[in-house]
TrEMBL record:
Specifically methylates the adenine in position 1618 of 23S rRNA. This is Ribosomal RNA large subunit methyltransferase F. Its EC number is 2.1.1.181. It is an enzyme of class 2 (transferase). It comes from the Bacteria. The gene is rlmF.
Length: 320
């Protein structure tokens, strides 16, 4: 294996485009939403659909209930997941971008053999599974993978487990675990004899509650719905504090993940995480050099005008 150096980092890039067609080629959420088909899958959505200024069917994306109803319809129509909910105030994630992470991971796993591994024998660890359990749901429904999902919030752990228990297509696909040591990531979650083909993570990217509130205001302004007098805006995607921010922000969280990953080098095939800001890559690469990661990849994903990226690293090629 070659020693990691930033200028020689292997990079896998998804095609870049300025519209929704830039999603991964296997992502089912291409083009406009077919609201007639979605309503047929989940009739609850109908009450939120109306013509927008362009005469097209749409929903009010600033309405949390409308967004949740859309998610339920998408999960039912595309994945056969018919029972899904999150507690009040918990993150309600946009599904198309989350699906891209799963399909990009599938490509990463297939890079060794040329074939995407499928089925229960493929094990993934979702750090911060959340009450929505979005990544394990999509990975289970799309490829049959088995997941361990960890979270520091007992409400999130309980809800994630309940989602899998309530849907036949997800049955047996998730072991939801509470991380009681809140300053740790892999420690206390990965058992001594466990092996995971990959880990994934969508880390909290704000450094403080104030930063998270500012981010909420930016999103509302982008939707044209910002109220300058409202100091505590209600976002359509919601989110608990631990879902949105941590002290030190994304870089500190990922750096801790990298430091702990070295201790589980032989128990994980690929460690991966989303990185929201390109400016955060240099300190992340520095941390990876520090732990002696042998193979590092930066995989770009595009959704409309937004570009995000996954950083993946490993210490060995095989389990042995």
């Amino acid at each position: 294996m070659s020693k990691f150096a930033p200028k020689k980092t292997a990079t896998i890039k998804a095609p870049k485009a300025a519209n929704k067609a830039s999603l991964h080629s296997r992502n089912q959420h291409q083009g406009r939403y077919d609201f007639a088909a979605l309503i047929a899958a989940s009739s609850e959505l109908a009450q939120f659909v109306a013509k927008n200024a362009y005469g097209d069917d749409s929903i009010d994306f600033a309405d949390p209930q409308a967004v949740k109803a859309l998610n339920r319809a998408l999960l039912a129509h595309f994945y056969g997941i018919t029972t899904w909910d999150t507690p009040e105030g918990y993150l309600c994630p946009p599904i198309p971008g989350r699906a891209d992470y799963i399909h990009t991971l599938a490509d990463l796993l297939a890079s060794e053999t040329g074939e995407i591994p499928r089925g229960d024998a493929v094990r993934g660890l979702d750090i911060g599974v959340g009450a929505n359990a979005i990544y394990p749901m999509l990975g289970r429904a799309s490829y049959g993978w088995h997941f361990v999902g960890s979270d520091i919030d007992p409400v999130a752990v309980k809800n994630a487990a309940q989602i899998f228990a309530n849907n036949a297509v997800l049955a047996g696909g998730l072991d939801a675990r509470l991380q009681s040591a809140t300053r740790h990531i892999f420690n206390g979650i990965i058992g001594a004899d466990e092996y995971f083909d990959f880990t994934l993570c969508n880390p909290p990217f704000h450094a403080s509650a104030a930063d998270a509130a500012a981010g909420s205001n930016r999103k509302l302004r982008n939707l044209g719905l910002a109220n300058k007098a409202d100091k505590t805006p209600k976002l359509n995607f919601a989110g608990q504090n631990n879902e949105l921010w941590c002290e030190g922000g994304e870089v500190k969280f990922i750096t801790q993940m990298i430091l702990e990953s070295k201790h589980f080098a032989t128990q994980v095939g690929w460690f991966t995480t989303l990185v929201s800001k390109i400016d955060n890559l240099p300190p992340i690469y520095k941390a990876l050099r520090g732990v002696g990661a042998h193979d590092v990849k930066t995989l770009d994903m595009a959704q409309g005008q937004k570009i995000s990226r996954i950083v993946a690293w490993r210490f060995s090629i095989s389990k042995n």
